Amino acid sequence: MPKSLMPAALPRNASGNISRGIMPKLSRELYVTYGCIAFAVVMTGLTFAELVVRATPVTRLHPGGLVEAVAFGLIVALLAYGGLVYQMARAGHFRRLLTSRDGAVPAIRTAQREGPARPLAVLVPSYREELEVIRQTVVSAALMEYPNRRITVLIDDPPFGDPGQRAALQATCKAIRDLHTQFERLAQPFEDAYGRFRRRMLGAIDARLETARVADLYRLAGHLIERNAATWTGRGPKSHADGFFAEAILARLVMEHRQTAQAFEGEELAASEIDREYRRLESLFRVPIDSFERKRYANLSHQRNKAMNLNAYIGLIGGAYREVVTAEGVVLQSCAPGAADVVAPAADYLLTLDADSVVLPDYAVKLVEAMEADERVAVAQTPYSAFPGAPGMLERVAGATTDLQYLAHQGSSAFGAAYWVGANALLRHSALIDIRTDTVERGHIVPIFIQDRTVIEDTGSTIDLIRRGWRLHNHPERLAYSATPPDFGSLAIQRRRWSNGGLIILPDLLRHLLSRRHGGSAGEGPMRIHYLVSPAVANGGLLALLAIPFDAHLASIWLPLSAAPYYFLYGRDLKQTGYRWSDLARIYALNLMLLPVNLAGVFDSARQILTGRKAPFARTPKIEGRTATPVGYLAFQGLAIVYLLASLARDILGGVWQHAVFSGLNLALFAYGFARFIGVREALADIRLIAASRRAPILADPAPERELPAACEPSMPRRSARAAASADA
């Protein structure tokens, strides 16, 4: 694993400040960034000065010259804007690291000393996921060190389907039940030990003996995790994600528990410290795990997106419900806790966690600490990183872009411009209640907490939150990891969704920034705006430079120099994040491959603005095998290569050497990207596959079945759930 991707925090001293040894390096990076910003500003200024000088005689001779010069200058300005935003975010990131004390306090022990922790509900939205994917996600959440947590998998598989789909649904439900039972058994010896200790506390205790017992329990905890590791990581061939899960979570916990046991050997703790350790041990594996299927109920939303899956359950939190059969199907009605079929216990915090993500053991305690420190923080998160060690070139390069996006997100916090990134986040329930709206679906009032107006529900909800005076916090530590699509077809689905929605949300952001109530930093507006418009601006600007044969007189030696600081810092960040300088060229090639994908997402936004019809939510495939790349994207790549080849020939024949270099480099990278990230053989196979599927006869959808959908058996017997609800009440 690359050193900089290791889950450890930056070295700190006893008072929580960054250790002196690391501070010179951080300061050096900050000064390098400031120097690059100054250089980029000067070079950009010289670029425009020369553009004005060169364009003036051209515009006098050619009526369209002014339009061409203005268009070229606008494209250059927008691309320079994007580069400066990244550099400013980088400066903000290192400035935060120099001043931040996040992660310095062992929050879990502090919380145990001060009293019971506020309840945390972990919500895992899932749609036809592989069992191994769900299992690792749930286990990583279950092994988080937080004393008052519960996990609910929000299964969004249709309750009707063919026998194979029904079997898969039941297998998912069984896996969740098995995990609940397994963690109940793991927790039992520690709960029993704590109960016996509390009885011994009624009299005199032997502190040395009790400390030895605590050490034995820590050894037992490590042994139990080690014994179950094979089950939790899967018994088949191990992927790099499996290896990371085993090393960064399971092996880490085994080592930490054994080190704690060794530290307590021969020691004699005070009674209060012994009690704290027993309570910590008692909560290590005590985590109820269950599932919920919103599509079983006629009075809940059935909209096909992650936001409404989450909204359906969030609307039930804090209540008890019974199932009632009506003419339209099964509905949930509020009832007394003792008569409930479905119980959604109250929770102050919600952790939303995608089913292909994992969190490290200290995720919850560190983010809850940030929540507790500021009651106006609505979202605390650590934007996810890619699983290190990807075997394929595409997955590794796409993961590199994710890892550098983490840096940009961290830097945006320095300007108060953070956005919620939805793969994982800790949410304050009261903040979601504050931004709640209602809609009507099939005659039922449906609550909306997380916006579903666009497919980027996290970004849209960010605007709702900041308009109400809530803040977002990016924790400066890598505590969450998520899968990167391994093939171009699935990556295209993900990136098209990511690039759709920004233009729709932009008017809401502008109204907020222009309102008198807004009092943010000077950098907040430019950074927030760039986050929303960058898919359109960056991809549209690059396509224009590639496609439009601008007059050679508009070119300037200062133009590539103005872009050099951005690429220098981006490559430097790649190197410091565990990648190679050569990956800078590969990332540029991948961005060329993604041009039609990102622009298709922008087109989806424009179409929704004009027609009001929302683009369907396209889930990123998380299955074995390869997802076919749409023919339209393949055609774009082929046409782009042919066009750049013709452009290169034209430039050489015309003696336009500066543009010839530009065309040649992009042609080479386009060809490289097509060969490495898609593949000629794979592209031909995709074309044949899609052509065959279009020739196949269209079969009618099966008629809906009359009988009620069969629910998953609950993880906890309903009798136990009702008893727990009555006890809470």
Ranges with pLDDT <50 over ≥5 residues?
Answer: 1-9, 11-18, 103-113, 698-708, 716-729
What is the count of DSSP helices, taking H or I runs of 4+ residues?
23
Mean pLDDT: 87
User: What spatial order of strands do you see in the largest sheet?
Assistant: 3-2-1-7-11-9-14
Kindly name the structural category: alpha/beta
Major beta-sheet overview: 7 strands, mixed
Residue fraction in strands? 5-15%
Number of strand segments: 15
Distance linking N and C termini:
47 Å
Tell me, what's the shape?
globular
Q: What is the radius of gyration computed over CA atoms, rounded to a whole number of angstroms? A: 28 Å
Helical fraction: 55-70%
Structure description:
It is a single chain. This protein has 729 residues and is an alpha/beta fold. Among the domains are: 1-118 and 348-609, no CATH class; 628-696. 58% of the residues lie in helices and 10% in strands. It has helices at residues 23-61, 65-99, 107-114, 131-142, 163-200, 207-233, 240-264, 271-284, 306-314, 363-373, 393-413, 429-434, 457-467, 488-498, 502-514, 524-547, 558-576, 583-593, 595-611, 631-654, 657-678, 680-695, 718-728; strands at 120-126, 149-155, 289-292, 319-326, 329-334, 342-344, 349-353, 357-359, 377-381, 385-386, 424-428, 437-441, 444-448, 471-474, 480-482. The strands form four sheets. The protein has a seven-stranded mixed beta sheet, with helices on both faces. A three-stranded antiparallel beta sheet has the order 5-4-6. Strands 8-15-10 form a three-stranded mixed beta sheet. A hairpin with a 2-residue loop joins strand 12 (437-441) and strand 13. Helix 11 (393-413) packs across helix 18 (583-593), helix 18 (583-593) packs across helix 21 and helix 20 packs antiparallel against helix 21. The chain is globular, with a radius of gyration of 28 Å.
